[in-house]
What does this fold into?
Amino acid sequence: MPAPSQSVRPAETQAQSKAPAAELSACLRLLKERGVDYAPLAKDDDAGACAVEEPVSFKGVRLEGGKLIPLDAPVTLSCNFAADLALWIRDDLAPATQRHGLTLRGLSGVGGHACRNRNRQIVGPVSEHATGNAFDVRRLVIDGAAPIDIMGDRADKTRALREEIRAGACARFSTVLGSDSDAFHEDHLHVDGRVRRGGFRLCQWNVR
Ligand SMILES: [Zn+2]
It folds into this structure.
Protein backbone atom coordinates (compact mmCIF):
# COMPACT_ATOMS: atom_id res chain seq x y z
CA MET A 1 0.00 0.00 0.00
CA PRO A 2 1.29 3.47 -0.82
CA ALA A 3 2.11 5.46 2.26
CA PRO A 4 -0.43 8.27 2.65
CA SER A 5 2.20 10.36 4.38
CA GLN A 6 3.91 10.95 1.03
CA SER A 7 1.26 13.39 -0.02
CA VAL A 8 1.37 15.09 3.35
CA ARG A 9 5.08 15.53 3.72
CA PRO A 10 5.66 18.30 1.15
CA ALA A 11 3.02 20.47 2.77
CA GLU A 12 4.58 19.94 6.18
CA THR A 13 8.01 20.77 4.86
CA GLN A 14 6.67 23.91 3.26
CA ALA A 15 5.00 25.03 6.45
CA GLN A 16 8.16 24.39 8.43
CA SER A 17 10.35 26.31 6.03
CA LYS A 18 7.95 29.23 6.00
CA ALA A 19 7.63 29.53 9.76
CA PRO A 20 11.12 30.92 10.54
CA ALA A 21 10.88 33.51 7.76
CA ALA A 22 7.65 34.83 9.22
CA GLU A 23 9.26 35.04 12.64
CA LEU A 24 12.42 36.91 11.71
CA SER A 25 13.38 39.20 14.56
CA ALA A 26 13.51 42.96 14.03
CA CYS A 27 17.30 42.74 13.95
CA LEU A 28 17.45 39.96 11.35
CA ARG A 29 14.99 41.92 9.22
CA LEU A 30 17.35 44.89 9.50
CA LEU A 31 20.25 42.73 8.25
CA LYS A 32 18.16 41.75 5.23
CA GLU A 33 17.25 45.38 4.56
CA ARG A 34 20.91 46.35 4.76
CA GLY A 35 21.93 43.71 2.22
CA VAL A 36 23.82 41.48 4.62
CA ASP A 37 24.71 37.98 3.43
CA TYR A 38 24.32 36.04 6.68
CA ALA A 39 23.15 32.82 8.28
CA PRO A 40 21.44 32.84 11.70
CA LEU A 41 23.19 30.75 14.36
CA ALA A 42 21.83 29.12 17.51
CA LYS A 43 22.66 30.93 20.74
CA ASP A 44 24.95 28.95 23.05
CA ASP A 45 23.37 29.38 26.47
CA ASP A 46 26.27 27.59 28.18
CA ALA A 47 28.88 30.01 26.86
CA GLY A 48 28.78 32.27 29.96
CA ALA A 49 30.83 35.44 29.41
CA CYS A 50 31.39 34.36 25.81
CA ALA A 51 27.71 34.17 24.87
CA VAL A 52 26.75 36.11 21.74
CA GLU A 53 23.33 37.80 21.68
CA GLU A 54 21.41 36.71 18.57
CA PRO A 55 24.49 35.32 16.77
CA VAL A 56 24.82 35.39 13.01
CA SER A 57 27.44 34.17 10.60
CA PHE A 58 28.30 37.35 8.67
CA LYS A 59 29.62 36.64 5.17
CA GLY A 60 29.42 39.97 3.38
CA VAL A 61 27.25 42.91 2.37
CA ARG A 62 25.51 43.79 -0.86
CA LEU A 63 25.90 47.35 -2.15
CA GLU A 64 22.88 49.28 -3.43
CA GLY A 65 23.48 48.01 -6.98
CA GLY A 66 23.53 44.40 -5.78
CA LYS A 67 27.28 43.79 -5.87
CA LEU A 68 28.42 41.60 -2.98
CA ILE A 69 31.40 42.69 -0.87
CA PRO A 70 32.42 39.40 0.76
CA LEU A 71 34.67 38.73 3.74
CA ASP A 72 37.45 36.22 3.06
CA ALA A 73 35.99 34.08 5.86
CA PRO A 74 32.60 34.30 7.62
CA VAL A 75 32.72 35.77 11.13
CA THR A 76 30.30 35.25 14.01
CA LEU A 77 28.83 38.51 15.33
CA SER A 78 25.90 39.62 17.43
CA CYS A 79 23.06 40.68 15.18
CA ASN A 80 23.10 44.27 16.46
CA PHE A 81 26.79 44.68 15.78
CA ALA A 82 26.44 43.03 12.37
CA ALA A 83 23.81 45.65 11.48
CA ASP A 84 26.26 48.46 12.34
CA LEU A 85 29.12 46.79 10.51
CA ALA A 86 27.01 46.42 7.38
CA LEU A 87 26.45 50.18 7.18
CA TRP A 88 30.14 50.87 7.67
CA ILE A 89 31.11 48.59 4.78
CA ARG A 90 28.25 49.66 2.52
CA ASP A 91 28.10 53.40 3.23
CA ASP A 92 31.70 54.22 4.25
CA LEU A 93 34.27 51.74 2.94
CA ALA A 94 32.84 51.09 -0.52
CA PRO A 95 32.05 54.72 -1.43
CA ALA A 96 35.30 56.04 0.10
CA THR A 97 37.29 53.57 -2.00
CA GLN A 98 35.31 54.64 -5.07
CA ARG A 99 36.00 58.34 -4.38
CA HIS A 100 39.70 57.52 -4.56
CA GLY A 101 39.39 55.87 -7.96
CA LEU A 102 39.41 52.28 -6.70
CA THR A 103 36.74 49.58 -6.51
CA LEU A 104 36.32 47.60 -3.31
CA ARG A 105 35.99 43.87 -3.98
CA GLY A 106 36.11 42.43 -0.46
CA LEU A 107 37.71 42.45 2.98
CA SER A 108 40.41 40.05 4.09
CA GLY A 109 42.20 39.13 7.27
CA VAL A 110 38.96 39.41 9.22
CA GLY A 111 38.01 38.31 12.74
CA GLY A 112 34.84 38.30 14.81
CA HIS A 113 33.66 36.31 17.81
CA ALA A 114 36.48 34.82 19.88
CA CYS A 115 36.20 33.74 23.50
CA ARG A 116 39.11 35.61 25.07
CA ASN A 117 40.24 38.45 27.27
CA ARG A 118 41.26 41.81 25.86
CA ASN A 119 44.48 41.58 23.82
CA ARG A 120 44.58 37.82 24.45
CA GLN A 121 45.85 38.31 28.03
CA ILE A 122 45.37 35.53 30.58
CA VAL A 123 43.89 37.91 33.13
CA GLY A 124 41.96 41.12 32.59
CA PRO A 125 38.69 42.26 31.10
CA VAL A 126 36.84 40.14 28.56
CA SER A 127 37.28 41.37 24.99
CA GLU A 128 34.34 42.70 23.02
CA HIS A 129 35.21 39.85 20.65
CA ALA A 130 33.95 37.45 23.32
CA THR A 131 30.39 38.72 22.89
CA GLY A 132 30.53 39.08 19.09
CA ASN A 133 30.55 42.85 19.45
CA ALA A 134 33.86 43.49 17.64
CA PHE A 135 35.40 43.14 14.20
CA ASP A 136 39.00 42.99 12.99
CA VAL A 137 40.08 43.63 9.41
CA ARG A 138 43.48 43.71 7.83
CA ARG A 139 43.09 44.42 4.12
CA LEU A 140 40.78 46.01 1.57
CA VAL A 141 40.68 43.78 -1.50
CA ILE A 142 40.69 46.02 -4.60
CA ASP A 143 39.55 45.24 -8.14
CA GLY A 144 42.53 44.91 -10.47
CA ALA A 145 45.06 46.24 -7.97
CA ALA A 146 47.04 45.11 -4.96
CA PRO A 147 45.09 44.87 -1.71
CA ILE A 148 45.45 47.78 0.71
CA ASP A 149 46.95 46.73 4.02
CA ILE A 150 44.98 49.11 6.25
CA MET A 151 47.65 49.46 8.94
CA GLY A 152 50.79 48.38 7.11
CA ASP A 153 50.36 50.55 4.02
CA ARG A 154 52.29 53.82 4.39
CA ALA A 155 51.95 54.91 0.76
CA ASP A 156 51.23 58.58 0.04
CA LYS A 157 48.74 57.65 -2.67
CA THR A 158 46.46 55.81 -0.25
CA ARG A 159 46.87 58.16 2.73
CA ALA A 160 43.79 60.26 1.99
CA LEU A 161 41.69 57.09 1.65
CA ARG A 162 43.03 55.69 4.92
CA GLU A 163 42.32 59.03 6.63
CA GLU A 164 38.76 58.85 5.35
CA ILE A 165 38.34 55.29 6.60
CA ARG A 166 39.62 56.36 10.01
CA ALA A 167 37.19 59.27 10.21
CA GLY A 168 34.25 57.09 9.21
CA ALA A 169 35.12 54.30 11.64
CA CYS A 170 35.61 56.71 14.55
CA ALA A 171 32.25 58.36 13.82
CA ARG A 172 30.43 55.03 13.73
CA PHE A 173 32.08 52.83 16.36
CA SER A 174 32.67 53.56 20.05
CA THR A 175 36.09 51.89 19.87
CA VAL A 176 38.59 52.09 17.02
CA LEU A 177 42.09 50.72 17.57
CA GLY A 178 44.85 50.75 15.00
CA SER A 179 48.56 51.31 14.72
CA ASP A 180 49.89 53.39 17.63
CA SER A 181 47.11 52.26 19.98
CA ASP A 182 49.23 49.34 21.22
CA ALA A 183 51.41 46.52 19.93
CA PHE A 184 48.37 44.29 19.45
CA HIS A 185 46.89 46.45 16.71
CA GLU A 186 49.93 47.18 14.51
CA ASP A 187 48.73 44.87 11.76
CA HIS A 188 44.94 45.24 11.74
CA LEU A 189 42.09 47.59 12.44
CA HIS A 190 39.80 46.75 15.36
CA VAL A 191 36.34 48.28 15.73
CA ASP A 192 33.79 47.49 18.41
CA GLY A 193 30.58 48.73 19.97
CA ARG A 194 31.62 48.80 23.61
CA VAL A 195 29.27 50.91 25.72
CA ARG A 196 31.13 53.10 28.21
CA ARG A 197 29.94 55.34 31.00
CA GLY A 198 29.14 58.84 29.75
CA GLY A 199 29.26 57.68 26.13
CA PHE A 200 33.08 57.87 26.14
CA ARG A 201 34.63 56.81 22.83
CA LEU A 202 38.09 55.63 21.90
CA CYS A 203 39.59 56.52 18.53
CA GLN A 204 43.23 55.42 18.55
CA TRP A 205 44.69 55.14 15.10
CA ASN A 206 47.39 57.40 13.71
CA VAL A 207 47.30 57.20 9.95
CA ARG A 208 50.85 57.40 8.61
ZN1 LIG B 1 39.94 43.02 17.67
In short: The longest helix spans residues 79-99.
